[in-house]
Give the backbone structure.
Amino acid sequence: MALVIPKESYSGKIYNVTLGTGAKAVTIGGASALPYLAFEGTFPNKPAVALEVTDIAPDDWPETVKKAVSGAASNPVQWAKFCQQNGADAVALRLIGTHPDQQNKSAEEAAKIAAEVAAAIDIPLIILGSGHVEKDTQVLQAAAAATRGKNCTIGKAVEENYKTIAAAVMANDHKLIAMSQLDVNLAKQLNILLSQMGFDKERIIMDPMSSALGYGLEYTYSVMERIRQAALLQNDPMMQTPVVCDIGANVWKVKETMAADAEVPEWGSLEDRALAWEAVTASAMITAGADMLIMRHPGAAAKTKELIAELMG
Amino acid sequence: MALSGVEIFKHLPKTNCKKCGHPTCLAFAMKLAAKQASLDACPDASEDAKKILGESAAPPIRGITLGLGDKAVKVGEEICLFRHDKKFFNPNVFAVAIKASEAGDAAAKKIDAVKNSEIDRVGQKLRVDAIAVTDEGGDAAKFASVVKQVVDGAPGVPIILVSKDPATIEAGIAHCADKRPLIYAATAENAEAMAKIAKEKKASLAIAADGLDALTALSEKVKGLGVDDLVLDSGARKVKDMIEHYTIIRRAAIKKNFKPLGYPIIAFAGRDNSVSETMAAAIGTMKYASIIILNNVEKWKMLALLSLRQNIYTDPQVPMQVAQNVYKVGDAKDSSPLMITTNFSLSYFIVRGEVENSKVPAWLAVMDNEGLSVLTAWAAGKFTAGKIAAFITESGVEKNIKHKELIIPGYVAILSGALEEKLPGWKITVGPREANGLPSFLKGRA
């Protein structure tokens, strides 16, 4: 009995989305088959690995990852340059200082930092709000205007605030991250809502809501597999946007990336364990079809880039 | 491919003798098709019928058990390509390779690592499942001495014998012939000799070939030599090849019922760099490898891989549940706040994470609602004032705290009045709707 390779026939394709400008611009998406099945489709672009920086020195990042960014964390511009030097494909600036529970920085202050960071690097810039639904609308509007011409990726627009953020992104010619809560239908719904207001769906990057290894990873994994199947096998245009996974923020708040060796001797060394936690979470998201990852540990990001290179063959 | 009732009927005696307990052969055939009866119930079934019907009833990927007793592990018998289609059934085996050249202290260290590898994760006990003794130089005596060291040092742990030399396998299997080991591997060159050993010793046999066509041919050859319990190695070592080969194998078996590839897969994830090894093993775990061989099993690596395996093999239909209890978060004292949520693992993880984030020590009461989230449990009538009151009263939490205040999730604010009635003397406080509101809520109270 000879083996006949059982191939899927795909009718859909993921959109190509270009981030940033100039020689270091990055294009993601473009897949025409389920992840890395090169015998039945093409993968013109490799997934991008972004490293995260914050506008104020983060007080809740564990020591292991703080040490890994080697003191750059006190200044977002220096930190962004550090990420670029360490091989990041993009920098993700999270404006955590604008959150009312943090320093409640004004939209203008945040926009100024975003513009300074954008000017300091030539790789693409991702600008993320603090996750506060109301405040993010002001902050991201200001940041979008201040970085006009840089083709930034701005988010996250959620169901409660997508209109204002999408309008600012459109007006300033950027790309948009649209986040929904771990559900295939909600992800599609948000893309439909954005399209209905005239936002070009080929400028959207979908965030299905990430989770960390051991903490609900399987939900994100399966939602992503289903999104990719709908996009490629059912040719659903509302599911054909590239996917971003914002994993650093999830990984670096679980006990496995924080607990000292002595506290849980059965878990092994903290440094290795914490790096592996982000690297394995990244491996899972890449396997499920992520087109871009936002990570925190430069060492874990470097290993992820090695994995991607091996997957692309 | 499963046969229909009518197709099965064609192979039955058609005597309507009723000895199987069914009124007619056709009725019995229908029950067989629905897998509600077994052909064993028919005393007159021909050998041909047994063979044909047995094959049609066989799972598309054969189940293989390694080892004996309570440490035995079963792999295979998977029925889908995506966990959301149904679930992944038999978690992959993680095995550590011990080279023949590591005989003595190095081997002893790895054996100890396996014996001390057990961790408890969300109520499951997880560990390194097996040991692969690996020959590199063809020194049969040395190989056998490591096998003996493993059998003596880690009793009951399933063994994989890795050598392409039949004489070396013979020497090694002498120490574990009665323990249902896995032999790796039969190749096109040594198939007859390896099949003979596997049959004699009742061992499972891995077959190794370069590429899927060669693997298919070898599978048919070895099956023809009378070995049923096979494990497949297509030669994939790079992650790209692992995903491609394993997907084709799994698809061919499940969607095409292609028998030569209807067996579990063995992956060699060993790398010089331990993080790269972890990531390659992670790819194997997600993409259909049933047995994964590692060079080293550091504790941090196994914690990550076993957690991933647990995530991937969780039944998507049955939410992961946390045991009902009042959990202490941080250094909670008798004055620390008491909060309640449901036992859906994701609810628990997120709430607990945010409480830890707030750095405010607290008591977290987790109530058994069959793994439903707060709103779903409330809507299903499983998170009601009466049930919450009974749980709080019976939990004995009152012995740990000196106040009588219970913080409930914002989504069930509606319960606060009824709860104050059911829990006389208690103050019910409505917390935030989403867990991410907890840090500011808790800090604001402190």
User: Anything to note?
Assistant: Chain B touches chain A through 59 residues (CB under 8 Å). The longest strand of chain B covers residues 93-99. The mean pLDDT of chain B is 93. The longest helix of chain B spans residues 239-256.
